[in-house]
Design brief:
It holds the Pfam family Cellulose_synt. InterPro entries: Cellulose_synth (IPR005150), Nucleotide-diphossugar_trans (IPR029044). GO terms for molecular function: glycosyltransferase activity. By secondary structure, the protein is of the alpha/beta class. The protein has 2 domains: about 90-325 and about 360-460, Alpha-Beta Complex (Spore Coat Polysaccharide Biosynthesis Protein SpsA, Chain A), CATH 3.90.550; about 485-700, no CATH class. It has helices at about 20-45, 50-75, 85-90, 115-125, 145-165, 175-180, 185-210, 220, 265-280, 300-310, 340-350, 400-410, 430-445, 465-485, 490-510, 515-530, 545-565, 570-600, 615-625, 640-660, 665-690, 695-700; strands at about 10-15, 80-85, 100-105, 135-140, 235-240, 250-255, 285-290, 295, 320, 365, 445-450, 455-460. It binds uridine-5'-diphosphate-glucose and manganese (II) ion.
């Protein structure tokens, strides 16, 4: 398809990917293949005496077919967009809208305060009028250490921001900038580096002793007395930097009130608090949400987002502009598939051609209005001060403004209001990001996927398998909460979004259910080999070729998606291996945890993923691409190791059978071989390795 002609005034263009036609044709063929397979199963079910096995295979294949349909909806109209920020910059500065940045942190030990500092500094230093930026940091850990670090950051920013702008520095996270040693330093840079290192020492010292010297800053830190705990404390709002006194961004520390008896809704609750506090103080029409590890790597990111968010033709229904999540320090072949290419790139391009990408919790610029009801119907909040269209003309340091800011950060504020249901980030799922984006799309908001050449944000990804599994288990539970909520992607989703986008949203919510086919295909045919019976058609049977075709078709297309969106063959291989491991651990236990949670037998919290990188051995293992099962390998790995062992046994039996009788169970054996190839790192960890990150015997043998 021809690229859209871009006139010199248009700020963005959109182009359909070239693969589209081919993909649509293939979809038709694959659909026929799936229907044939279903016919085959039903026929077998009715005519042969293998009810249990066939039903299990049928169930698995129905789930896989649905999964394939959801993926296919995202291959229906993939698009690539381009922005022209240089045209935006040509505007007079007065026309640049105000920008409120939200940064969430929750635990000073899993999320080191220096990380928060770097993220905050990197966005404060945006190529954007400084006095239009306000950075709000939400600290759910209620930690004086984080506040102390941010006070230091405020002081340092007065040197850092002018330096970046004067020298057109591209890496505006000081940690990144100063770690690039190959530069030839100017004296100015050298001085700043010393200043930064002193700051880092002070912050890290405070973190290591666990408290701030109370005598020195009694006025501020006096709040942290012996009654203060992270789960029980009053609301704190501190203006650390303020552009009324100088041409600097605002920097505001917020720790909402917590009490053990009020629900706080984890990150969604924190974000809603920031929505209100920022409304009261600055009420910028554009909001950027970030996790504390996601520092800015591209100083022009806001301009890219504004190419969409300022376009009068689309703004009335444009809810948000999502940037991909990218991670720093991923090892060469990405052994844990934590780049999540399918989630953060491939699928996004697909959604983008429908209604727009889902919200992924970080690196997203919102239209503030989107949090207050559908495009055509503003839902008024309970206070006039929270109205998204209000123009703020008072000082954010005025007494009444500060008093109200503390009020709206109170833990009982949301009682009997629309917050979390009709207004703001939505409650009820541990994947508050996916859920909120879904609800906004259902209301009629659209979104755009923005992927500038220079990556806009970099974050941390888990560096050991146990952490990856923990994260994905939390997601699985959150996704199941969505499936079984009133606004299920299955029912409400299809009704509100139509067929393609509805299917697209079910792609993720369906993840946990994939543990069923993975378990069945990981055990059943293998047991069949061991017992010497067949579950799949023999190689002389024409149905044999249908299996070959479907397997190859699905895998080759998956690989092609991967390569077309910038992946490599090795990363794809690791990605599909992780899919198997995740399916047998995170998704599997996610279903169990969710069931327990629904029956009130367990409470699963938002366990924050650790971003601290201080374990050198773990770091080394990661860099050498050695699977790290963590020091205390949990039950989580039991299904994976069981499947690995069963497959190895089946493989040996199968090969033996083939040699002994000349004719074997070809499909079953092919499947077992495929699984064995995937399980190599697991065998190594079980049998060959001696280091502390191997799998302990306890997990090997139950
Ligand atoms: O009670 C809480 C719990 C978490 N967070 C913050 O939420 C963010 C995300 O937490 P993290 O542990 O990093 O989760 P991930 O699994 O890495 O995050 C992905 O998945 C989450 C949903 O499960 C989304 O919120 C994230 O944006 C998305 O990157 C962090 O900044 C936390 O500080 C809070 O503010 N309050
Ligand atoms: Mn994260």
């Amino acid at each position: 398809m021809e690229p859209q002609k871009s006139h010199s005034t248009t700020l963005h263009a959109c182009q359909t990917c070239r693969r589209t036609v081919l993909y649509r044709c293939y979809a038709l063929i694959h659909t026929c293949g799936i229907m044939a397979l279903m016919y085959h199963h039903v026929h077998t079910l009715l005519t042969e005496n293998t009810a249990l096995v066939t039903s299990l295979l049928l169930l698995s294949d129905v789930i896989q077919a649905f999964m394939w349909a959801t993926t296919t909806s995202l291959r229906f109209n993939p698009v690539h967009r381009t922005e022209y920020p240089e045209r935006y910059v040509a505007k007079p500065e007065e026309e640049f809208p105000k920008l409120d940045v939200f940064i969430c942190t929750a635990d000073p030990y899993k999320e080191p305060p220096m990380m928060v500092v770097n993220t905050a500094l990197s966005v404060m230093a945006y190529d954007y009028p400084s006095d239009k930026i306000s950075v709000y940091v939400s600290d759910d850990g209620g930690s004086s250490l984080t506040l102390f670090a941010l006070m230091e950051a405020a002081k340092f920013s007065e040197h850092w921001l002018p330096f970046c702008k004067k020298n057109n520095v591209q890496d505006r996270s000081p940690e990144v900038y100063f770690s690039l040693l190959s530069r030839s330093w100017t004296e100015e840079a050298e001085n700043l580096k010393t200043m930064y290192e002193d700051l880092k020492k002070r912050v890290e010292y405070v973190v290591s002793v666990g408290q701030v010297d109370n005598d020195q800053f009694h006025e501020v830190f006096g709040l942290w007395d012996h009654n203060f705990t992270r789960t029980d404390h009053p609301s704190i709002v501190k203006v650390l930097l303020n552009h009324e006194t100088e041409a600097m961004p605002n920097l505001i520390y917020v720790s909402r009130e917590k009490s053990k008896v009020s629900p706080h809704h984890f990150k969604a609750g924190a974000l809603n608090t920031l929505l209100r506090v920022s409304s009261v103080m600055t009420n910028a029409p554009i909001i950027l949400t970030l996790d504390c590890d996601m520092y800015s790597n591209n100083p022009t990111a806001p301009l890219h987002a504004l190419c969409y968010l300022s376009d009068p033709k689309i703004i009335s229904s444009l809810g948000f502009v999502q940037f991909p999540q990218r991670f720093q320090g991923i090892n060469r072949n990405d052994i844990y598939a934590s780049e999540l290419r399918r989630s953060f790139d491939i699928n996004m391009v697909g959604y983008d051609g429908l209604m727009g990408p889902s919200y992924v919790g970080t690196g997203c610029f919102f239209n503030r209005r989107a949090f207050y009801g559908p495009p055509a119907k503003l839902i008024k909040p309970e206070l006039d001060e929270l109205n998204p269209n209000r123009i703020v003309d008072t000082s954010l340091k005025a007494q009444d403004v500060l008093a109200l800011a503390h009020d709206v950060a109170g833990c009982n504020y949301e009682r009997n209001t629309n917050w979390g249901s009709k207004i703001g980030f939505r409650y009820g799922s541990l994947v508050e990001d996916y859920y909120t984006g879904f609800m906004l799309h259902c209301e009629g908001w659209r979104s755009a996927f923005c992927r500038p050449q220079r990556v806009a944000f970099y974050g941390e990804s888990p560096k050991c398998l146990a952490d990856v599994m923990g994260q994905q288990m939390r997601w699985s539970i959150g996704l199941l909460e969505m499936v079984f909520s009133r606004y299920s992607t299955f029912t409400y989703g299809f009704k509100s979004l139509g067929m393609l986008m509805g299917l697209g949203y079910n792609y993720f919510t369906f993840w946990p259910f994939c543990s069923i086919p993975l378990t069945v295909y990981g055990i059943l045919p293998q047991l069949a080999i061991i017992c010497g019976v067949s579950v799949f058609p023999k190689s002389s049977d024409p149905w044999f070729w249908l299996y070959i075709f479907l397997f190859l078709g699905a895998h080759v297309q998956d690989l092609s998606d991967f390569l077309l969106e910038g992946g490599t063959y090795r990363k794809w291989w690791n990605d599909q291996r992780m899919w198997m491991i995740r399916g047998l651990s995170s998704f599997f236990f996610g279903i169990i945890e969710f069931t327990l949670k629904t029956l009130n037998l367990s409470t699963f919290h938002f366990n924050v993923t650790s971003k601290a990188n201080d374990d050198n051995e773990q770091k080394n293992r990661y860099e050498q691409e050695i699977f790290d099962f963590g020091p205390s390998s949990s039950m989580l790995f039991l299904p994976v190791t069981t499947v690995a062992i069963v497959n190895l046994l089946a493989f040996v039996c199968g090969v033996y059978g083939l040699i002994a009788s000349g004719e074997g169970l070809v499909l079953e054996l092919m499947l077992a071989s495929f699984a064995v190839m995937n399980c190599v790192p697991i065998y190594e960890a079980m049998m060959l390795r001696k280091d502390e990150a191997r799998l302990p015997k306890r997990v090997n043998f139950g």
